[in-house]
Amino acid sequence: MGHLHQRLVGLRRRLLFTDEPDPAVLQGVFALLYALDLTLRAAGDAAALDVGTWPVVGLAVTVVTCALAAVAPWERLPGWAAGLLPVLDLAALGMSRVDEQGGAAGILAVVPALWLGRQFGRRGAVVAVLGTTFLLAVPSLLYLGLTGVNLSRAVLIPVVAGWAAFAISYALERVRASRDVIAHQRRISQAIFETVDVGLVLLDRHGAYEGVNKRHEDFMRLAFPEGHLGRAGQLGLVFHEDGTTAFTRDEMPTYRASHGEEFEDIRMWVGSDPHTRRALSVSSRRVEDDNGAFAGAALAYKDVTDFMRALRVKDEFVASVSHELRTPLTSINGYVHILLERHDLPTDVTAQLEVVARNTVRLTRLVSDLLHTAQADEAPMHVVREDTDLAAVVRGCVEAAGPAAARADVSISLDVPETLVARVDAQRMAQVVDNLLSNAVKYSRRGGHVRVSLGTDANRVVLGVADDGLGISAADRGRLFTRFFRTRQAEEQAIQGVGLGLSITKSIVEAHGGRIEVQSELGAGSEFTVRLPDR
Ligand code: ADP
């Protein structure tokens, strides 16, 4: 059944000129049509089939041509040889037409014309026009005489046959041209695919691998030493950023991409040997068909091994340096306070010592921020939650911020209840308020105003710190809580800071099961809102 179906499809492609013309098939069909014309003519008038009349000679020519088409070794003959067949067909049609009855044989000229146009392009079309004119139209005019009917046939047949031949030859040229363009584009894409320094994978809509470039084959050898079956979601030596937790099937980037997900910068380690394993950052994009339906996915794997190793070294370095700094700082702090408790010092010395004390506190906070940041990936923030009067904590922070605000000519207003008890880590929450408040003051203009509020909303404690200062652009808002991020405005105005406060603030809030949000408009001010569960 399948075989028969295939043959029928093959025949259709030949008859509709989709494939290169097959002389045996086309000539066979032509001979059948030719014979049909004569048979139908004979049905009306038996004399039409008299042996020796021109139409029957034409039939004989057609049959001989048919046999020739079937046995000639076309693949060994020069290309133009096959062109003789349609020309002979036109001659046979000419013979068929030099008959009083005429019949509809003229329309059959379209078959050799299409054949010539399809196989030999424009040159074939010219031959078709010349052939129909001199083998068909002119002889019939000479033989049958110059009547109106004959003239009309003699003109129209070459015109229509030529039209068909030119139409098919132009259509073919256009198909070839666009095929060339597509082939060229494919070669360019292939060159890009293989030259980029990024592993690339193309998936089809069912998650089967459609293409993998050489760069990615290296990564796959590390991740799947046993081999890969070419389907999305296969498990292998693929680990999370910690280097030990293996990816589950649902987490595998190929699996997610094959379900239509798009993502950016999923980090992973591939391979188990610490010396040869590589760190990769994976991104994915959907591929859609013309109707917008999911048609597959493209994944890019960037080698970020050096970057990940550098990050680790940096974190270890920062952690150890800040750890080492803490001990001498504690000692300086202690001695400065001992000194400050003495009453026999001249007042200017006491004032200078107070500056030392203030800066020691700042330095201590910076060092502990750095230490926390360096360790943040390994240990989640530890908080000790106890019943705490948050209102008192906030008031304390506002009071402590007073001198800095006064220096910056920023006023602070406070909207806090008498008491507000919540189960929180008092020290950590003071750090949150300090960070938000010091930012609000730092990023305000002279004469600016900062509003601090505390209240409850359902079972949540809500802390707000708002300013009318520089504000933050929408693009920056998304990255505000990442380590070491600072806005361009902060950098440009050389406002002191390192970009750690907000990332730490966020981890503290989240360790309490809360959330922090920011609303802001560039140039108009910012409002940070912290929501915490009160229990
Ligand atoms: P730092 O203040 O030390 O730079 P933070 O992590 O506290 O670090 O803040 C990160 C960045 O966010 C700041 O550098 C600043 O650009 C921006 N920012 C924070 N708070 C505000 C604010 N209230 N107004 C405008 N920009 C702010």
List the SSEs and their pairings.
Blueprint: H1 2-15, H2 23-44, H3 54-71, H4 84-97, H5 110-144, H6 148-195, E1 199-204, E2 209-212, H7 214-223, E3 238-239, H8 253-258, E4 263-270, E5 278-288, E6 294-303, H9 305-341, H10 347-375, E7 386-389, H11 390-407, E8 411-415, E9 421-424, H12 426-442, E10 449-457, E11 460-467, H13 474-477, H14 488-492, H15 501-511, E12 515-521, E13 525-533
Parallel strand pairs: 8-10
Antiparallel strand pairs: 1-2, 1-6, 3-4, 4-5, 5-6, 7-9, 10-11, 11-13, 12-13
Helix pairs in contact: 2-3, 2-4, 3-4, 4-5, 5-6, 9-10, 11-12, 12-15
The protein binds adenosine-5'-diphosphate (ADP).
Adenosine-5'-diphosphate is lined by residues 435, 439-440, 443, 467, 469-472, 480, 485-487, 490, 497-503, 526.
Subcellular location: Cell membrane
Domain Histidine kinase: 320-535
GO molecular function: kinase activity
Q: Can you characterise this structure?
A:
The protein has 535 residues and is of the alpha+beta class. It contains 15 helices and 13 strands. Helix 2 packs parallel to helix 4 (84-97). The protein is elongated. The chain starts with a helix and ends with a strand. The mean pLDDT is 90. The structure holds adenosine-5'-diphosphate (ADP). GO terms for molecular function: kinase activity. The chain crosses the membrane at residues 52-70, 124-145, 151-172. Its main location: membrane. Its EC number is 2.7.13.3.
